[in-house]
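Changelog-linked ticket: KG4 example.
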Amino acid sequence: MTTILSIESSCDETAAAIVVDGRIVKSNIIYSQIELHKLYGGVVPEIASRKHVEKINQVIQSAIDEAGVTWDDIDAVAVTYGPGLVGALLVGVSAAKALAYAKKKPLVGVHHIEGHIAANYIEHEDLKPPFMCMVASGGHSHLVYVKDYNQFEIVGRTRDDAAGEAFDKVARAIGLGYPGGPKVDKLAKEGNREAIDFPRAFMSDAPYDFSFSGLKSAVLNYLNGCEMKKIEINKADVAASFQQAVIDVITDNSVRAAKDYGCTKLALAGGVASNTSLRENMKKACEKNGIEFYYPSPVYCTDNAAMIGVAGYHEYISGTRHGLDLNAVPNLKIGER
Ligand code: KG4
Ligand code: ZN
């Protein structure tokens, strides 16, 4: 039995978890700072770092207590060391290093995106590499070919905004507030997704890449145009039509990539993976193409430490160890050590 204490602090969630054998989540403590950042319409890095400092020890202790384990049971400490906000990452990395040193435990640095992908293993015992994974979050939109538990190939990426970023910006423009994703998701259910024909960007030179900034501008232009012409805006229709444009591109690119790479399995990950319409759309497309479709529960889609514990376990058993000189790497590339 291998027990990992994992820590995540790359953005605005202070989180710690205890994960056994890479699948069993004994505890998953998340202190979300969302309420704090709402006031500013987005994450304020300096405030995030300060709150992490305030909360991290408490969150780690709760994860240990709730799991009912002691330090004797813990085999290693895993921590997100990139990508993310440098000041935020540093808090988790420093805490992990201090504990690894004081308790004489191995230290394993984990890539945040590897964590998002690994979230899929928690509830799907049958899911094993190779498979294609679409990671869509506030900071990333990547199509990743998961060759093995810690072997990845980036197949497609966004040229500009991440999918979640587009959700947040559009939500802000129609007055829904931060974070926008869940609010657009909810409002879109009351709207007509065919009401406005927003653009879907497909790149001919890189067929699995994404671009969401044109779509975001099209929504802003539409809103400005309505305002100038004094036409009343139907927010639900805007939300539904925008969301459908994102869903169409994500579904099309990821199903095509899965087929082209000969994958019979496709997984979703990241905050945007909790979008209900995206899940439904992908499920249908996968069924049509004979592909098995996987996604994590919402709590494992948005930032959490359980997913870091799962990825950390696979790194740990494959021999990855980091020294006490481990640093936060804000632009860490996937697959880098
Ligand atoms: O994975 P995550 O918690 O943080 C990053 O690593 O970036 O993702 C947060 C992003 C935010 O942009 C949020 O608006 C989006 O995920 N999100 C959603 C939904 N829930 C969260 N987007 C669309 N629909 C949702 N239901
Ligand atoms: Zn994330």
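Closing comment: Example verified and attached. The chain has a mean pLDDT of 96. The first helix runs from residue 34 to 38.
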